[in-house]
């Protein structure tokens, strides 16, 4: 039996796995005891990975051969790789020639490896010259990115997992860590068992498994987080719990923020958030790190302040106020000096396994490689030189369309081609009516995907089968900036015509080579002459040198000794676990910015016609659209079918009992589900998991018959700063079906 060291492909914890294989068959998976993210632990999803790779399941779900259709009335037909790649390049060249490069959009994924992301980005911006490349990380992390950049100066998580071992207070906001990042939650459990004095505050409208273990659960009204942050800061100022010395030495903007939060007294905040004033005071005191018995009115020196680490995720990010929610929380850390030392700081948890890798290579509408700025001519010139672009050939200078905007533009006919890689927008984006109109409207849809069961496959003009977990080489970066190797344990399965799926980077490079021969010259030599994933990664590494994420000192050879955190410049002996310990931030003047962003209510408020707030989220044992986890029977033991969770009193008032079918209706659509009473959901709120919706119909355009899942309902409103959609608050009504 062969054992291959790799990384779990599910969530941003980034656990190390040992894949056991015999020949071309995966027979088992164990946690890697030497991986610093998990020390051998795996959750239910990670520990059943090998089951999803069993040949019988693969045969039923995998795309094994390129497929192509010349007209949309016909189902796609199996074809050779050469024919599919030639056709893709020819159709894209034709569209670029007729409509210009801006007619092409790329929608990629935080599931891709860094190498895949890098080549797709180079293909889009470098060769075609379209600014329109965005990632499903837009649905995951973009509010955190903008929050970090606007306050601390860089898209860099300043903390690490080890900080859980040093924190006195862990403040979890908008994250059901127990289900979404289970191995990290177990680490929190272990740290708490060692130090029972640790306090845990959970901010979440629902009493989740995470909230149920909190010392203080702030079950706020959905969407009112910014009101809460400002109310806590108001109390910290009133009681003298802020760190005035730290603010004076390392920040700017406090005066304006202080003036703003004067308008957020605890009585108002308690009323709007639906919380008790006493709980607000307790939360403010614990967050600020005030030891029990500390005398009132006596300034608290930094050395005696207890340490607060905040963990946060989609509850903050997926919001029309996503950036303001991130900024407001970071404001609290800065105001109390709760940053830059072990056990203290803001820690945004990445949802997907490589959401951070996509940010590193710049494969998002608003970014450029190596954390560069797309609007900065010098930044563009550096990447143009790295890619060998001809003198005078520039990269697009403006930001591209973000995820929701891209599909709206396609629905309006402004985009003519969509290339969708490793993501399933026909299930996961909000407002599915618009998404499906977009997929019908564009002239040419390329879907690069491992699983035939991804709903979006039904709209593909070309299906390019991708290698998946355990079949390809590359790297991912987890939530704590740690780069781990992903390794091939087995070859991809063979296709009916011979060679089966390819690694994503190789597919993009093969189209790129063909397309480069068809388009007017933009580069001196071949832009895509990569033989291995390592060659791609080495080019990416060069793009980071001198940047905040500098990995010039890393190599694939060094990663053989174990995963490493960035930055890791040439000459470093190890990566840096924690940032800003010297009090100098990544802004031009080294000072962090406190930003005074007022509270704004959710984009679509509840009213008489739509009186419930719909919250969406993950279940413990499923992943995204279930293309992989949905094939493993045991993972349905936790939740066998989708349902809508409602408060028992709301159900009683509506005359509903457990299991009754209800129609959940929003301004955009409706779905029918069984209702389930749950005291963990607040009054006039409901919760529906994100995983169900859509089914593969053999490539036919029977989209009206497809089950659309919860995103038939969700609102396409986005945060004006991050453009992240508001998946955590939609006004709906509930009717007996
Ligand atoms: Fe995989 Fe995340 Fe579970 Fe770790 S916690 S095993 S990375 S799904």
TrEMBL record:
Keyword Acetylation: no
GO biological process per UniProt: cellular respiration; nitrate assimilation
One GO cellular component term noted in the UniProt record for this chain: oxidoreductase complex
UniProt GO molecular function: 4 iron, 4 sulfur cluster binding; metal ion binding; molybdopterin cofactor binding; oxidoreductase activity
Required co-factors: Mo-bis(molybdopterin guanine dinucleotide); [4Fe-4S] cluster
Span of domain 4Fe-4S Mo/W bis-MGD-type: 1-57
Keywords, ordered alphabetically: 4Fe-4S, Iron, Iron-sulfur, Metal-binding, Molybdenum, Nitrate assimilation, Oxidoreductase
Record flagged with keyword Metal-binding: yes
Family: Belongs to the prokaryotic molybdopterin-containing oxidoreductase family. NasA/NapA/NarB subfamily.
Name of protein: Nitrate reductase
UniProt organism field: Tepidimonas fonticaldi
Portion of the parent chain present: 1 to 737 of 966
């Amino acid at each position: 039996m062969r054992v291959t060291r790799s990384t779990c492909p599910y969530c941003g914890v980034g656990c190390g796995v040992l894949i056991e294989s015999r020949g071309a068959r995966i027979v088992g998976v164990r946690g890697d005891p030497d991986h610093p993210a998990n020390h051998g632990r795996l959750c239910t999803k990670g520990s059943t990975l090998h089951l999803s790779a069993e040949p019988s399941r693969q045969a039923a779900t995998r795309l094994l051969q390129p497929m192509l259709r010349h007209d949309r009335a016909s189902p796609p037909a199996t074809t050779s790789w050469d024919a599919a790649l030639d056709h893709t390049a020819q159709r894209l060249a034709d569209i670029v020639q007729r409509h210009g490069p801006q007619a092409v959009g790329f929608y990629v994924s935080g599931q891709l490896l860094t190498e895949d992301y890098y080549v797709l980005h180079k293909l889009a911006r470098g060769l075609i010259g379209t600014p329109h490349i965005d990632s499903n990380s837009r649905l995951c992390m973009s509010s955190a990115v903008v929050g970090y950049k606007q306050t601390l100066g860089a898209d860099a998580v300043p903390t690490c997992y080890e900080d859980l071992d040093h924190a006195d207070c862990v403040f979890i906001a908008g994250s059901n860590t127990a289900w979404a990042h289970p191995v990290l939650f177990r680490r929190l459990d272990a740290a708490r068992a060692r130090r029972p004095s640790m306090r845990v505050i959970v901010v979440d409208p629902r009493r989740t498994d995470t909230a149920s273990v909190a010392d203080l659960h702030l079950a706020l009204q959905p969407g009112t987080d910014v009101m809460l942050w400002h109310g806590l800061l108001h109390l910290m100022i009133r009681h003298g719990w802020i760190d005035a010395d730290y603010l004076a030495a390392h920040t700017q903007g406090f005066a304006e923020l202080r003036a703003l939060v004067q308008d957020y007294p605890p009585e108002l905040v308690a009323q709007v958030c639906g919380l008790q004033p006493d709980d607000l005071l307790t939360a403010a005191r614990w967050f600020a790190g005030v030891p029990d018995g500390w005398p009132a009115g006596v300034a608290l020196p930094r050395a005696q302040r207890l340490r607060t680490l905040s963990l946060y995720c989609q509850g903050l990010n997926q919001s029309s106020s996503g950036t303001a929610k991130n900024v407001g929380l970071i404001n609290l850390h800065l105001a109390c000096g709760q940053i830059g030392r072990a056990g203290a700081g803001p820690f945004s948890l990445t949802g997907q396994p490589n959401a951070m890798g996509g940010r590193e290579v710049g494969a998002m509408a608003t970014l450029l490689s190596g954390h560069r700025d797309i609007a900065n001519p010098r930044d563009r010139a550096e990447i143009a030189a790295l890619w060998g672009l001809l003198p005078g050939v520039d990269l697009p200078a403006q930001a591209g369309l973000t995820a929701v905007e891209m599909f709206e533009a396609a629905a309006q006919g402004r985009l003519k081609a969509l290339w969708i890689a490793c993501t399933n927008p026909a299930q996961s984006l909000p407002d599915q009516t618009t998404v499906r109109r977009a997929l019908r409207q564009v002239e040419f849809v390329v879907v690069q995907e491992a699983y035939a069961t991804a709903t979006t496959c039904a709209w593909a003009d070309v299906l390019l089968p991708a290698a998946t977990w355990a079949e390809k080489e590359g790297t991912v970066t987890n939530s704590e900036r740690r780069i781990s190797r992903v390794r091939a344990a087995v070859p991809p399965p063979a296709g009916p015509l011979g060679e089966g799926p390819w690694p994503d980077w190789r597919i993009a490079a093969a189209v790129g080579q063909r397309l480069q021969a068809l388009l007017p010259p933009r580069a001196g030599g071949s832009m895509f002459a990569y033989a291995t994933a390592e060659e791609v990664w080495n080019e990416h590494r060069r793009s980071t040198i001198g940047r905040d994420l500098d990995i010039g000192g890393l190599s694939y050879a060094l990663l053989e000794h174990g995963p490493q955190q960035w930055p890791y410049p040439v000459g470093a002996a190890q990566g840096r676990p924690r940032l800003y310990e010297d009090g100098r931030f990544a802004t031009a003047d080294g000072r962090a910015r406190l930003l005074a962003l007022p509270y704004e209510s959710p984009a679509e408020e509840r009213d008489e016609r739509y009186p419930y707030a719909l919250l969406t989220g993950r279940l413990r044992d499923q992943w995204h659209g279930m293309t992989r986890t949905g094939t493993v029977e045991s993972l349905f033991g936790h939740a066998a079918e989708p349902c809508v969770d409602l408060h028992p009193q709301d159900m009683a008032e509506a005359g509903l009992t457990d299991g009754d079918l209800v129609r959940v209706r929003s301004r955009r659509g409706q779905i029918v589900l069984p209702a389930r009473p749950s005291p963990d959901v607040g009054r006039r709120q409901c919760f529906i998991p994100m995983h169900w919706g859509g089914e593969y119909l053999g490539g036919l355009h029977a989209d009206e018959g497809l089950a659309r899942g919860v995103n038939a309902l969700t609102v396409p409103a986005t945060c004006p700063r991050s453009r992240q959609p508001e998946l955590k608050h939609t006004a709906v009504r509930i009717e007996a079906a």
